[in-house]
Amino acid sequence: MRNPRSRPASANTTLPAKHSIKRGQRVEHEYHRRGALCYLAAWDVRRAKLFDRCDTKDGIVPFDKLVEQFMSVEPYNQARRVFVIVDNGSAHRGKKSVKRLQNRYENLILVHTPVHASWLTQRKVFTPNHFADLATLEENLLAFGRRYEQIAAPFEWKFTRADLDRLAQKLNLPAAQAA
User: Fold this and answer.
1) pLDDT tens for residues 38-63?
2) What's the distance, Cα to Cα, between the start and end of the chain in Å?
3) Which of 13, 91, 125, 136 is buried most, with the most CB atoms less than 10 Å from its CB?
4) Which residues sit opposite 108 in a β-bridge?
5) Contact predicate 67/101, CB 8 Å
């Protein structure tokens, strides 16, 4: 529980109202909204390469700009197939998004995560008082991307189709035999 005398991070300009046993403490939080920024990122797991950008809003146009960032350069524009795994956000949900992107990039294969798998989507929300302005926020987000690329390691996928077949056969056996 927060100390009632401490001040929240959001430039609170009023003191907490007195509270009693019958009524909980009321605290008014006032802050000045400085705008919002959307950070979009795509990560190539085989190369540990991050493509990122900031935009003032989320949607089809900002998402398509992100896809253009990596699909316009090698090796992605020359690859036989490029798998892009996305959640079910409004900018890339359903068959319309698959058609839109595959019309633009024949080698792009859009793969959607399960509908109720929001835990797969990584998000961090900053309050308005973490940064002085949107330019500082954008600078810090993009700096994070550059730093992450320095420490990231490629993900070497070693699970083959034969491994999958063996696992499937093992799972069909009674538990005592599978162990």
Assistant:
1) 889 999 988 999 999 999 888 999 99
2) 47
3) 91
4) 82
5) yes
